[in-house]
Structure formats: structure tokens, C-alpha cells
Amino acid sequence: MTSATPPSRTTPTPPTRVLFTGFEPFGGEAANPSWRAVRAAVAAPLDGLALHAAELPCVYGDSLTALRTAIDEVGPDIVVCVGQAGGRPDLTVERVALNVDDARIPDNAGAEPIDAPIVPGGPAAYFATLPIKACVAAVRAAGLPASVSNTAGTFVCNHVFYGLAHLIATELPHVRGGFVHIPYAPEQVTDRAQPSLPVDAVATALREIAVTTARTRTDLRVAEGATH
After folding, report:
1. Measured at the alpha carbon of residue 18, what is the angle toward residues 168 and 12, in degrees to the nearest 5?
2. pLDDT for 144-176, tens place per residue?
3. Which residues does UniProt mark as catalytic (predicted)?
4. Is 36 in contact with 55 (CB distance < 8 Å)?
5. Which is catalytic among the residues 81, 157, 166, 208?
């Protein structure tokens, strides 16, 4: 009597966990398009990805505490932090985070640090660990304007970007992360001549960035630099 061969069983591949973060309003604005776009980006499923969103306060220090809490809760493989860069004409994927807070305007708690290190004794800068050029190419292929940026500023956006990069470098080497700046939403510029991008378009771009990062280990080698 021969025994039947048991059916083969395969363990399903777990989804890639993606955490998007956006900011609360700041600078007198009624809403922040980064948080609106992040919420829209995670509203529909993507094959092979588990999408999560967290809102960060626009406050030095507190923003990193909220980021760490969200990372601990989600356990992400990829973190894409998003912030508003009013005046920029396109979605910009940031290349580098600087270890400095230098506030031109106060944060939402009234803090205005000047030339203060984000991590005392930390490296002067970190590069994003997203495939930034592949992400830009994917957003453009979706019909939306995008470019690589070489400055994330010195406000809370850069603060969060550097804090994320430092956390990845020192504690979470399996995580890939970076920062994306987006323009104003159209309703923010009805009384001023500034470029804008609809929130739903930004959400589409963020989803392209998530998919591209999950599928790409080696970035494109194409020119995306700047002369100034």
C-alpha cells in the first residue's frame, strides 16, 4: 500500500509594507496637500503592497516622535515622507537630507531654531535610499511633472527627512526611505500666481513611487543633476 503524496503548499509572499507620511497645515494655510494626497494614495489597494498613512505635526522634534511611533506601529519596508513646497512647479523627489535646522518661519509650536543640528554629532548629510531617478521616471511616465531635488530646505520637512535617514542608518537598515515635496493644491493659489498640482494627481504619483521602489533595487543611471 503506497501513501498518497501530500499536496504541496506554498507560503504566500507577504506584501511590501509602505508607510506614507504627510503634514498638518502650517504657515496659516487651512489644509496641507501633503496629508490630503497621502490619504488619497492609500485609499485604494495596490497588488503586492500594504499601504499605510500617518499625519505628522509641523513641529521640530514632535514630528520625529510621531514618525517613530508610526514606524513602530506599521513595521514598514518603505517610508515615503511627503511635504508641501509652495512655489515648486512639480513633484520633487529629494536626494539629500542635511543635519541642520534653520528656520525662516516658526513651526506650529513657535520654535525657530537657527543653525541647530538635528542629531548632534550625526553625519552632515544622508542620501535617500529610494531609487530617486527611477521614481521620477515613473511619475513622468504617468504623465505628471517630476524632478530630482538637491535641497529639502532647512524647515520641518528636512528635519523629518534627516531623522528618517538617521533612523534607517542606525537602527533599520532593511527599510528604504526618502522624502517627496509637492506643489500647492489649486485651491491654495486662487489669489496668487503660483504653480499647483491637483491632490489626486499627487496621489497617483505617490502610488507610482511606492510601486517603483518596491520593484527597483538598482536606480537608473541618468542625468538628473542641476547646474545651480
Report:
1. 110
2. 999 999 999 999 999 999 999 999 999 999 999
3. 94, 157, 181
4. no
5. 157
